[in-house]
């Protein structure tokens, strides 16, 4: 169990990096950050694909169609929206919104369950939603105060609100992704989870490359100041894309899969909060300030709400192995 918890912790530390990358590369559009990350991920996926040739070749045409849809929504569009929202609203609020995913996913799965055993009474789910809502209100009010009081802040209230909306769209994208992904794997148990992750990396690569070409055309036609394709700091950009492509998209996934193998499903689901906490830690280290009491209280309520919600579902039925 200790090894599993450490794997989940390290995965969260890896995933937290994707929340501060848009702040470190604030002069790069969110779309370019997403495309760069997944070009790197796709190139990295070529290596395990060489060692897993037989199982990759055994995937059907339908499997590849689903892999492309999942990669488009869960990889490219999700991170483009997340990166854009962070650049508009700073990291803490988008991070907290993403931190609600365990409950949002549970609500959506409960609303339209794939099987009757997945549902739970709404009255049992309401307390965790109320706790999460309170946490988000605290963080939101704290960040609005930060906007008003920080004279060096260049973000407007409009940018902040737009960032919130884009972050909610990112939550919607990554709510759809794990539900569809999990149900597809359960319906097709012949597909190995590692092979499926590699297949999604391979599916992402051509879309990311095509996206780069399309963005280059748009950038030229619109006359934008962005220096396509590698921007004003090509060395830093390439290094960061390789870093998050390897650490967050590949190593983080492997660590999380290992944790999922060693820990009960209900417990590993609760450990998603490591990602949120790591992202908040990195964001405030980058700011060079300590989080205020409202932020700390919001984090506490978020953690309590997620744990409470996951336990609500775990009591409904025995935990099943993660596919």
What characteristics describe this protein?
single chain, 323 residues, mainly alpha, 13 helices, 0% strand, disordered C terminus
Task: Give an account of the 3D structure.
By secondary structure, the chain is mainly alpha-helical. 80% of the residues lie in helices and 0% in strands. It contains 13 helices and no strands. The longest helix is centred in the middle third of the chain and has 31 residues, at 157-187. The radius of gyration is 20 Å and the shape is globular. The model is unreliable at 317-323 (pLDDT under 50).
Give the helices and strands, then pairings.
Elements: H1 2-24, H2 30-51, H3 53-57, H4 61-89, H5 92-98, H6 101-111, H7 122-149, H8 157-187, H9 193-222, H10 234-262, H11 265-270, H12 273-287, H13 293-314
